[in-house]
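ingest -> validate -> predict -> emit
validate: passed (alphabet ok, no gaps, 48 aa)
predict: started
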Amino acid sequence: MSMNPTALITPGEIAPDFELSDIQGNLVRLSSYRGSKPVVLAFLRGFM
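emit:
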């Protein structure tokens, strides 16, 4: 499945799965939270 990196996600739509490192360097995958708890994503500019 190819994804358009500029495609918008509407409220309530299931986000595509991805994996990022947390601030301690541990990999966190979005799908590991699916169905267990709500997830809020915040992308802060200039965090570090």
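The mean pLDDT is 80.
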